[in-house]
Design a protein that fits this description.
The protein has 179 residues and is mainly β. The protein has one helix at residues 2-17; strands spanning 78-81, 103-106, 109-111, 118-123, 129-130, 135-137, 140-142, 149-152, 166-170, 176-178. 9% of the residues lie in helices and 21% in strands.
Amino acid sequence: MQYGRLLPLLGVLLLAGCDGPLEPAMDSGLPGRDGSMPTDPDADAPSRDGGDDAGPPPPPGEWQLPPGHFHPAVMPMELVHPRPDDETSEHARHRWAHPEVAYRIPAAVIQGGAWPFFYEIVEGPPGATIGAQLDHVDDVQVAGPEYGIVSWTPSAADEGSTVTFVVRVTDQEGATVEA
């Protein structure tokens, strides 16, 4: 049998590859064979494993993450949705708002760029808001229900008027696109 000859060779390779002390890694939290806990010479340095000692996230309001805490863009930012009016049906949802009815539309669906994004209304009616950045929940940044959503409730006085929204989206590397 062919595999019978490979097993002894595999055993030799495994033993050669494990040529070191049989002690747990410094940050494993496991005691050594003698029962002592390993000491870490870089104990004050943040861990690179993403554990509790990796350092705090940026405080709320600081939406740009430090280098190494986001994936760099592999392609330029491009607006996917909503499409411009000349490319959409007259009945497209983002083109209509009704008095006293909440208008909630994803501001800009982006392809590419370095996420997470920062959203801001550049032009829009009074009272319009947007979920500009990620929420912080238990020291973790999460996309909440308002993230990237334009919200506005038109009044009866707005009926029949034309309102324009312009939203700017900025990625972690400073690239922008407007929708």
